[in-house]
Design goal:
It is built from eleven helices and twelve strands. The chain is α/β, with parallel strands linked by helices. It has a domain at 16-58 and 109-134 and 159-289: TIM Barrel, CATH 3.20.20. The model is unreliable at 1-8 (pLDDT under 50).
Length: 294
């Protein structure tokens, strides 16, 4: 019974919510449909693909220059394995699983290569609005080898028009996009902001992104960066839209940091996508905030 209820809940997970300026996509961060579950569940990938969701997975290069679907540079404690990803071949990860929030291994979330995770998508009906973001993670001091780029391109061959490559590392993301026909490009400047405090000024941040705008489709901004810009009277998200760049606000999860006022501000700012580990809860909060006084 519990399994049936979980399946029913997942199948009702929203892919978007109506905002004051049209639909806002709710991106399933790490493929999660709720906060407590393990990341990168195969069933959630298949479900979101058919429901038309924006989906996100993280990819890291292994010792043999393959891409594994992992968020952290080490296997532990988020998986049942141990060791640094960059020092291990992909075959050594066979039989490992991602852990849920309570630490239990999830048999629906094995540690897989990018190729193995996405392979089933080719036999599934894809909703036209479905897309899959490959969030490219790079380890400090590690260059992205050409063979890893080729591995990613082969893994998603034929799925390019559904692929978005996003990263803090824009030049490497461009290399992946160039290798995947039809793929779109996203840039997360927040690492640059952490290293260059002057970019906390929203006008300077806009100039930073504008100088890198060629081929850019999406900007990934921390939600509080957007809120701060709006509170200063600077319409950062709107200016990016004027450049043809949509904004994804990350990561928006239920909790004390997220108020009706913040959700209202994000929607009024015209964000086109919200990254969340709890799409159903954020959907309900946004619907509630639309009728609440900010």
């Amino acid at each position: 019974m519990a399994a049936l209820e979980a399946s029913s809940q997942a199948s009702n997970t929203p892919a978007a919510v109506e905002g004051p300026y049209g639909p806002v996509r709710l991106k399933w961060h790490k493929l999660r449909t709720h906060l407590a579950e393990a990341p990168f569940k195969r069933s959630n990938l298949a479900l979101g693909w058919q429901l038309g969701a924006s989906l996100e997975i993280d990819i890291l290069a292994t010792a043999d220059r393959r891409f594994a679907v992992l968020h952290d540079p080490t296997l532990g404690p988020s998986t049942t394995g141990r060791g640094r990803v960059s020092r291990l071949p992909i075959a050594s990860m066979r039989g490992l699983f991602h852990r849920a929030a309570d630490g239990t291994r999830d048999p629906d979330a094995p540690v897989l290569s990018l190729a193995d995770l996405v392979a089933p998508l080719r036999s599934l009906q894809r909703s036209p609005s479905a897309n899959l973001q490959l969030d490219l993670k790079l380890l400090e001091g590690h260059a992205l080898p050409d063979s890893a780029v080729a591995d990613a391109a082969a893994a998603v061959a034929g799925l390019g028009d559904a692929i978005v490559v996003g990263s803090h590392h824009l030049d490497d993301a461009r290399r992946l996009v160039a290798a995947i026909p039809g793929a779109r490009l996203g840039y997360d400047p927040m690492l640059a902001v952490s290293r260059r405090p002057a970019l906390r000024n929203p006008e300077r941040l806009l100039r930073h992104i504008e100088r890198r705008r060629t081929g850019l489709n999406l900007a990934y901004l921390r939600f509080d960066t957007i809120v701060a810009a709006e509170s200063q009277g600077f319409r950062l998200v709107k200016h990016l839209l004027d450049l043809g760049i949509e904004t994804d606000a990350w990561t928006v999860n239920p909790g004390v940091e997220i108020s009706n006022a913040i959700l209202h501000t994000l929607l009024e700012a015209k964000v086109r996508q919200i990254t969340t580990d709890a799409p159903s809860e954020i959907f309900r909060l946004i619907r509630f905030s639309a009728n609440a006084v900010p």
